[in-house]
Amino acid sequence: MQSPDIRCSCLPAATQSSVPVVWFAAMVAVAVLPLYASQTLLVSLEASLHLGSLATLITGLTMLGYAVGLVTLVPLTDRLPNRPLIGATLLAQVICLLAAALAPVASTFLVAAFALGVTASVVQMLVPAAASLAPAASRGAVVGNVMGGLMLGIMLSRPIAAFVGGMLGWRAFYAGDAVVLAGVALVVMRRLPDVRPTGTLSYRALLASMAQLVAREPVLRRRALYQGLLMAGFNLFWSSVAIVLTRAPLHLDSNAVAAFALAGSGGVIAAPIAGRAADLGRARAAAFVAHGLALAAIAIAAAGMHQGIPHVVTIGMLAVAALLIDGGVVGDQSIGRRAINLLAQESRGRVNGLYTGLFFVGSAVGATLAGPVLARFDWPGVCAATFAFFAAATVLHLFDTSHRS
C-alpha cells in the first residue's frame, strides 16, 4: 500500500533549548481546560440557564465535539499551512469561549459547548508542531513536556472551574479562559514552525487515508491499544472516586474533592521523565514502569477502603493511588506519543489525531462502566475492573516483541 502523495516543507529543526516548550505546554493546558470543566459547573449552569435534564448533555457535547475535531480538523495539518490553520482554530476557540460566557439561553450555550470541543482539538495540532521544532534526539523530551501541559490542563480543569465558578460564577470561568488563551496564543503563534504540506491529496481522500494509516502503521495500532486500555481504567477510577469520597463513610464536601483532584494532578511530572527515558532508548522499560505504577496504585486504592482504617489514612491512600495512576497513564501516553511522532513526517497530523481518537474510545468505555460497576459491585468492583484494564495493557505490551514501540 502506497503512502498518500503528501510532502511538506518546514523550517530546520531547532535545538531543544530554542523550542518554547513552556509556552507550548501553557498553550495546550489553557486550550484543553473547557473539555472537562463543565463537570464541576453543572449545578450553577442548570440554575442559570434552566437546562433541567439537558444539563448532563454539556460535557457529552463537548467531548463529542472534540472527537469530531480530531477527525475533521487535525488531518488538515497534513494538507494546509500549519501556522494559519492553528491560528484560525485558536481564534475560533476564543470566540466559542466568549459565546459560552455570554450565552443568554440554554440552546446557545449547548451549541457553544459542542463548538468548544471541536476547536479544543487544536491541542493535537500543537503537539506535532512542537515536535517538528526539535531534533529527533530530543523530540521525546519536548513532546513529553508539551504533553505534560496537556495532562495538567485536563487534571486542573475541574478544580479550577469549581474555584472560579464558586467565587465569580460560571460565566467568569469561560470569559477568563478566553482572555488567557488569547494572551498565550499571541506568544506561541510567533514561534510556530512554518510547516507547509505540498501534496495534492483532496480533503476527502485525506480522511480516507486515515483508515489506510491504521492498517499500515503497527506502532500506531499497538500504542493506541495500550493507551486505550490504560485510559479505560483511568476514567473508570476517576469517574468513581469522586462519588466514593462524597458518600459514607468519608463524606467529603466539594472543596475537599477539588483538593483531592488537585493532588492527583502531580502525576503530570511523569510525562517529561518518560519522554527523556524514551530518548535514551529505554522506552520499553519506561512503559513497564508506567504500567507498574498504575497496577500498584489500584492495589493501594483497594486496600485503603478496608474497614477499620482511619478515614484520614483512607483519604491519603486514595490520594497516593490517584497520583500513581495519573503518573502511570501520563507516562505511557508520552512514550506512545513520541513513538508515533517518529513515523512518517507527512502523516504526522493524521497520526496524532488517530492516536488520540482511538484511545478516547477506551476513555468512553471506562467512564460508561463506572456507574454500573460502582452500583453493583461497589468500590472493590471498581478496583477489580480498573486492575483488569491495566493488567491487559501490561500483558499485551509484555508480548510485544517490537523494539520500535
From TrEMBL:
CDD domains from the xrefs? MFS_NepI_like
Q: Which domain of life is it from?
A: Bacteria
| Xref: InterPro entries | MFS, MFS_dom, MFS_trans_sf
Membrane-traversing stretches? 21-37, 49-73, 85-103, 109-130, 142-164, 170-189, 224-245, 257-274, 286-305, 311-331, 352-373, 379-399
Q: Does the keyword Membrane apply?
A: yes
Q: Has the keyword Transmembrane been applied to this entry?
A: yes
Q: Tell me, what is one Gene Ontology molecular-function annotation carried by this entry?
A: transmembrane transporter activity
Cleaved signal peptide residues:
none
Positions of the Major facilitator superfamily (MFS) profile domain: 18-405
- What are the record keywords, sorted? Membrane, Transmembrane, Transmembrane helix
Q: What is this protein called in UniProt?
A: Major facilitator superfamily (MFS) profile domain-containing protein
Which source organism?
Answer: Paraburkholderia caffeinitolerans
